[in-house]
Amino acid sequence: MKRLIGVLVLSLALVGCKDDSAVHSAAAPAPAPGSMQASVARAANGAGSDKIAYTHKIGLEMARDQLQARFEKARALCESDPAIRCTLLRAQLNLFQANPYSSTNAELELRLAHDSVVPFQTRLLEKLPGEADAPTVASISTTAQDLSQSFIDIEQRRRQLTDYRDRLQALQQRPDAKIEDLMKVASELSNIQGNLEAGAKSQAELRTKVDTEYLVVDMTGRASAIERGTPSIWEPLRQAWYATGANLVSSMAVAFRFLITALPWLPVMFGGVWLLRIGWRRLRR
Asked: Is the domain of 122 the same as that of 137?
């Protein structure tokens, strides 16, 4: 029975090596279209294809005073609008009000149903109340990733583990099984169950990727000409003042690195000076 268990373990290990060598996915960026609606619409039309995962990344630029309102609108669309099936994965808003010349930015990571991508983008680009212009699409990209091979590999691995588990369970029922063999079988069954649960989790994650579309929205708020005002002769000094803290810390870091680097050489330097003084005294004599 020990020999039979060893053969089963070896066969499963060889299968695992074969599975790991398979290619799990292939990604190809879609051509960049002229407008955001065209890109998202084209990806959504093919979103029904089996085992294809879509990723969209969009960069928007707008007036700085409108950034927070548009950020809140995008988050509300995802979390509260019943017409849009969306899951908010991450939302981050950075506001820098001290320096009128600095930009503000925000980023959202979302998962949308295939038929919710275009409506979400259309609503996101609508002008806000009191906003002079709609946001500008600064960048856009769409990536389609084929996960078919990953699904095949996971399913093949699941079948092999299930077959291996059934064989081990059959060994447990043998009347001539020894306690030592039963303990080994129980340990192997525990490992198999863990691998089956991990495979089920991976399969669920892949299914989420193909059943939804991943969208990253990056927003940048630019200071308007009125906010910036007319540059004055003191502007370089004001900008230097804003950067005082960062420059001070950076200089301290440089000085600290120099001190740490030079510290081991101090005994050598003092020894060299001492030898030079001794040599100079002997020459003078």
From this structure: yes
Residue 233 falls inside a structural domain: no
Angle subtended at Cα 188 by Cα 183 and Cα 194, rounded to the nearest 5 degrees: 130
Phi-psi region of 51 (alpha: psi -120 to 50; beta: other; left: phi over 0): left
Nearest to 22, CA basis, from 208, 165, 147 = 147
Kindly state whether residues 19 and 30 are assigned to the same domain: no
Report pLDDT digits (tens) over 26-66.
Answer: 343 433 434 444 444 444 444 445 789 999 999 999 888 88
**Residue (of 119, 138, 283, 134) closest to 220 by Cα position:** 138
Q: With contact defined as beta carbons under 8 Å apart, do 66 and 131 qualify?
A: yes
Measuring CA to CA, how many Å separate 104 from each of 93, 94, 107, 130?
8, 6, 11, 19
> Which residues in the chain come in under a pLDDT of 70?
1-49, 96-102, 223-235, 238, 242, 285
Per-residue model confidence (pLDDT) at position 221:
87
Residue 115 is classified by DSSP as G
User: For the chain, where are the alpha helices, taking DSSP H only?
Assistant: 2-20, 36-45, 67-80, 117-124, 148-172, 179-211, 225-228, 235-242, 244-262, 266-284
Give me the domain span that covers residue 91. Answer: 26-148+210-228
